[in-house]
Design goal:
The structure is a single chain. This protein is α+β, with helices and mostly antiparallel strands. Among the domains are: 90 residues, Pdz3 Domain (Roll); 198 residues, 2-enoyl-CoA Hydratase, Chain A, domain 1. The protein is 32% helix and 24% strand. The chain is built from ten helices and 21 strands. Helix 9 links the parallel strand 17 and strand 18. Helix 7 runs parallel beside helix 8 and helix 8 runs parallel beside helix 9. The relative contact order is 0.09.
């Protein structure tokens, strides 16, 4: 009986021993955790970036960005390059926008934002070429502006710009390229160009100048397509849609009226665009009041806006031919599309560039700026211009490489005149 009691006692004593050992282990682990927790509080590394927050949005933890920031700041080989937090922040914003792969959405530092307005002011320093990115992200010439160093040097629409002063343009934004191409009057910039049909690239050394953009040329032609003060065809060459375009077109329209023009050739070749309002204003001379000129299509369709003709619609019944080429972009495409779909104007030449988006300028708190695409442009019949362009009704052959495009020898004007005369006479 006592033996059984002792056995039971021994078993209970062993159980107590195991319990005490387990309790000690728990205390040791808990104590270590507590000491570690206190040490962690005292020695926690904090990444402090002033003026920003670390939001949690739709499952995205922005602490990953600051983690990458910290690694870059602490490990990048050149401490000097990562010492400017402002540059790193601006680079991050630029990278955010570039992820959209939209060449028309971009970020401007305060300095670049101040310079940006020069692009559409009508006068600036540089070579006089409208540049952009094609579908592959390659920097290209959209069009050389009339009478500028770029045109005189022989640049053509769709020329690929491979290098600027021997620096590769791969991955370069349009804004960065513009900064590199511009410079003081009289200095030289060298562009390495590749053109379709060439076996290898060529260097173009172009002397910079103050660029004064001509807006409009007007002539009266006879039925043979030759300049004639008594001619009955009004030839209007519109080079851009900047501030002066509506007032200059008004003057040209009066000349066309006083010359009793029976037909109009509207030449939009190498016209890179400009202000939407200018295109709507000029369209009003051709399109019946109240009819659609262009539609802005937003992400939220309830915000869509339709721009209509406000008149005076004086030329709505006048036979019209519109000339376009690969350098016709933006507002040029709006006007060409509206005249084609509303007035039955004959479009001749090449398929246009296909730049049909709306950009909004958003000023940020430190005077930096976003240029962001907010809408597409649609023709009156709903054709999206962006990436599609305007197709010509009659396709014309591009001039040869070394062929001068002087007015008297311009084959496109001659062909446009022939087509227009037939339309005037009711033969087509």
């Amino acid at each position: 009986m006592n033996l059984n009691f002792l056995k039971k006692f021994k078993i209970s004593r062993d159980s107590i021993s195991y319990f005490v050992i387990a309790l000690v282990v728990v205390v040791l682990i808990g104590g270590s955790y507590w000491l570690g927790f206190l040490k962690g509080i005292r020695e926690t590394k904090k990444i402090v970036v002033e003026g920003v927050t670390n939001p949690q949005k739709e499952g995205i933890d922005f602490s990953l960005f600051w983690e990458a920031w910290n690694v870059l700041k602490s490990k990048y080989v050149s401490q000097e390059k990562v010492s400017d937090d402002r540059s790193l922040l601006y680079g991050s914003i630029a990278g955010l926008l570039s992820s959209l792969k939209d060449p028309n959405t971009s970020f401007f530092s305060p300095e670049d934002a101040e310079k940006f307005s020069q692009d559409i002011s009508g006068e600036f320093g540089g070579i006089g070429a409208e540049i952009g990115l094609n579908k592959d992200g390659q920097l290209i010439v959209i069009t050389p502006l009339k009478g500028t160093p770029a045109e005189k040097a022989g640049l053509k629409p769709q020329d690929k710009i491979l290098k600027i002063n021997n620096e590769n343009t791969f991955g370069l934004s349009v804004e960065e390229a513009v900064r590199k191409i511009r410079g003081p009057k009289g200095t030289v910039v060298t562009l390495t160009i590749f053109r379709e049909g060439w076996e290898k690239e060529k260097d173009f050394s172009i002397t910079r100048d103050i660029i004064q953009i001509p807006t409009l040329d007007f002539k009266t032609l006879n039925f043979e397509g030759k300049e004639d003060k008594k001619g009955k065809i009004a030839y209007i060459k519109l080079n851009n849609f900047y501030e002066k375009a509506p007032s200059l077109f008004y003057q040209a329209a009066l000349k066309a009226i006083f010359s009793q023009a029976e037909g109009i050739i509207l030449d939009l070749r190498n016209n890179p665009g400009g202000y939407l309002e200018a295109a709507v204003n000029i369209g009003g001379w051709f399109i019946e009041k109240g009819k659609t000129i262009v539609v802005e299509e937003f992400r939220d369709k309830s915000q869509n806006e339709t721009f209509v003709s406000r008149g005076p619609s004086i030329f709505k019944d006048v036979p019209t031919v519109v000339l376009i080429n690969k350098g016709s972009a933006s507002a040029s495409e709006i006007l060409a599309g509206a005249l084609k779909e509303n007035n039955g104007a004959i479009i001749m030449g090449e398929k246009s560039f296909g730049k049909g988006t709306v950009q909004e300028l958003v000023n940020l708190s430190d005077q930096s700026m976003l240029k962001i695409t907010v809408a597409y442009w649609l023709t009156p019949q709903g054709h999206r211009i962006d990436q599609n362009g305007i197709e010509p009704d009659i396709e014309l052959k591009s001039p040869q490489e070394n062929e001068k495009e002087e007015f008297d020898t311009d084959s496109w004007i001659k062909e446009a005149t022939q087509v227009l005369v037939k339309k005037i006479k009711g033969e087509n």
